[in-house]
Design the sequence.
């Protein structure tokens, strides 16, 4: 498949603690991340009596210091009217509770993402992690690699300030009125359970969060809490809602640069996942566990953090093949194996 013609209208990048206008009343802000993916994009929207903040960055001393500088400088020195959170992942919600206390304003988030944030933050006994590790053990991951993940502890709590105890609910299909403009709430699924994207028809702008990224694909994981869910199908299906959006929509993603040609990028994301499904299917003439299939999907070495995501991603692809009747799952002496069906061979 030929690469879509993705266009990047902004050559320059904003420095940390600096804002850059990308449209009338819309500012781009980048915050550092201590990962291979070294930044997150946040967005500031002009509102009636100040600015709306979209997403917050991680809860670290460095990012708090950057926010303190920003809040005392234009344009944020005029005040913050609300804080919108696209989803519960730490780089997006990490400082929501702290910023709420710092600014005295409300948090706006979908209900499922608010509940999920509290669920992960309050995992003080690591029960969720142990359930996940037991799930990965069933799918063939050996004890040494399980132990490396066990030693991570509750990383969510380490980089997320206490989530707000009160919030304003955001619902798919409903408008948010910000600065005299209407932003439609669009729900993406698969990467997060109720991920909010915001679309301004008047300005042809889409704040896409992690749902549509220009260079990388968002992680789609099968959760131990929902072992028979189908998150990859949810992710692919959720793109249907984006079909009516204007062809010249400017996409404001959470990672990478703002870009044009949304529909071409969605086509590329779909193609990528179908290619990965085909790679898995061709190796399942004989039974394999999800752990055995990791080298087929991930060529680079994986640290403990990356391994966790890789297992979830492998299982999400296998879940879609299973739901389509292309593979069957069988428990053999406590390990789950997948094998291609006659239907899968035809497909």
Sequence:
């Amino acid at each position: 498949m030929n690469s879509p013609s993705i266009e990047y209208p902004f050559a320059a990048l904003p420095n940390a603690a600096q804002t850059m206008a990308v449209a009338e009343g819309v500012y781009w802000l980048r915050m550092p991340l201590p990962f291979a993916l070294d930044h997150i994009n946040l967005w500031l929207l002009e509102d009636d009596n100040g600015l709306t903040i979209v997403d917050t960055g991680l809860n670290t001393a460095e990012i708090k210091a950057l926010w303190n500088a920003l809040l005392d400088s234009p344009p944020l020195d005029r005040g913050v009217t609300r804080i919108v959170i696209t989803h519960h992942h730490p780089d997006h919600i990490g400082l929501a509770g702290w910023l709420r206390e710092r600014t005295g304003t409300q948090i706006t988030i979908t209900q499922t993402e608010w509940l999920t944030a509290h669920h992960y933050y309050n995992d003080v006994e690591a029960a969720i992690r142990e359930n996940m590790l037991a799930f990965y053990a069933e799918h063939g991951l050996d004890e040494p690699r399980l132990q490396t993940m066990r030693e991570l502890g509750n990383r969510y709590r380490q980089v997320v300030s206490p989530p707000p105890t009160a919030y304003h609910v955001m619902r798919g299909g409903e408008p948010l009125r910000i600065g005299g403009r209407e932003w439609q709430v669009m729900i993406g699924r698969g990467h997060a359970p109720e991920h909010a994207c915001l679309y301004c028809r008047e300005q042809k702008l889409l704040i896409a969060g992690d749902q549509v990224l220009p260079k990388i694909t968002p992680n789609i994981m099968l959760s131990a809490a929902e072992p028979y869910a189908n998150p990859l199908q949810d992710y692919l299906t959720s793109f249907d809602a984006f079909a009516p959006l204007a062809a010249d929509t400017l996409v404001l993603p959470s990672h990478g640069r703002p870009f044009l040609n949304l529909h071409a990028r969605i086509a590329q994301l779909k193609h990528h996942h179908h290619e990965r499904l085909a790679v898995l299917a061709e190796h399942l003439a004989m039974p394999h566990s999800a752990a055995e299939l990791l080298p087929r999907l991930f060529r680079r070495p994986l640290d403990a953090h990356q391994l966790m995501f890789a297992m979830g991603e492998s299982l999400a692809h296998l879940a879609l093949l299973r739901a389509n009747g292309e593979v069957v799952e069988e428990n053999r002496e406590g390990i789950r194996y997948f094998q291609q069906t006659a239907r899968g061979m035809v497909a």
Summary: The first strand starts at residue 19 and ends at 23. The first helix runs from residue 61 to 71. Residues 19-268 form a domain with the Metallo-beta-lactamase; Chain A fold (CATH 3.60.15.10). The mean pLDDT is 94.
